[in-house]
Design a protein that fits this description.
The chain has about 100 residues and is an all-alpha fold. Helix content is about 65%, strand content about 0%.
Length: about 100
């Protein structure tokens, strides 16, 4: 894009690109120097990550957590709905015989 703009202005595009690259490199070095001086010193020993935390980070993604939570909610609602349906529908396991129709013969 910079090359197209330099050619539009009838400038030497290679010179413009080199100046731009040097400016980017200088800004990068200044940024690195500023962050190095502001960063507190870190101990040279780095602990290896815990194996369990690596596995959890790999498998417990946000979409899996949300999906699992929604499944638990759906399962709970279905379970509670069926439980209350059988409780109040008169469905009882009793030893009484079901009512029979009258015998007219």
């Amino acid at each position: 894009m910079l090359r197209n703009y330099a050619e539009f202005l009838n400038l030497d595009s290679e010179t413009v690109l080199l100046q731009f690259a040097e400016g980017l490199q200088r800004r990068r070095l200044e940024h690195l120097a500023a962050t190095e001086s502001a960063r507190p010193s870190v101990s040279s020993t780095v602990r290896a990550p815990n194996r369990l935390s690596v596995l959890l980070r790999r498998w417990m993604t946000p979409d899996l957590l949300v999906g699992g939570f929604l499944f638990l909610i759906l399962f709970s609602v279905c379970h509670l709905g069926n439980r209350s349906r059988f409780r109040y529908s008169g469905f009882r396991r009793s030893k009484q015989h079901p009512p029979q129709s009258p015998n007219f013969c």
